[in-house]
Amino acid sequence: MMKFGLVSHRQHRTGPDCGLFQWARACGPALNALGLGLHAVGGTHDALVRQGLLHDRLVPVGRGRAGGLVRLVSRVAGGLLAEEALDGIFFLVDPVDPTSIYPEAQALRRQCVIHGKPFVATVAGAIEWVAVELACAGLTDVPLPQAQALLALESQVLALIAHDALKDEMVAFAAEHFDLLSRFAGRVATGTTGRRLNEMAWARGWPASQDWVTRYQSGPLGGDAQIAELVLDRRCQKVVFFEDPHVARQHEADIQLLDRAVCTAGEATTCFNTPAMARRWAGALQPGHTARP
To answer: Over the chain, what is the mean pLDDT?
Structure first.
């Protein structure tokens, strides 16, 4: 059985139509079909129980102040017991909640990146990722109508961003899924990544007079901020952001700015931040996809 951690900031679990409850109502039947267990931190667990949502799927891990997030970090890394290891994290982030920059919250994201596990930070992303897992499990007959608009690539713009150590990986991912990514209404990228992606596309027969991606500045020169503005304006709906967690990043503030923009536009925007996560998403959307564990 797959197991994900589940966390939501207060904004996403307050009020009858909050993001957590919207996601739980939309995805409840799909989560049941998948048999997906949710290791939920205190306030998130309690809010769902009060609403009578997902109670059969929930495993409490304790409140955040009592180390609930620390337990999730450990379990993403493999946990103390093999049966407690998590396959990913749903963390509905409020970008202005100060706990989003606490060490345990940052470590949770970093460990997901290190171990190639999904870290899903928006309501749109959480709905879409359940659809991905349904496809990977071969459960395409389970209805999830709220995911249809999120999977309509022809009406969306995709951002492709990679840190230096992962630029080769980004070009390889784009080449592997070139036909799928070409379905988007548009693609954008930061400086060097964009140049290399255009060169790859031209080599594959994309018209030499047309850019496959629209290039913005390099990340350190403001490219992340330019793409963040597109996200905030709802002119970019998906971000593939290959992060290198092992190097010091002089423009860390720019990277965090893009992350916060994605969460601010979280009802419409999804982000895939590891090659493994992006390939699982892309594979699920390919015709004739064969499920993989």
So the answer is: 93
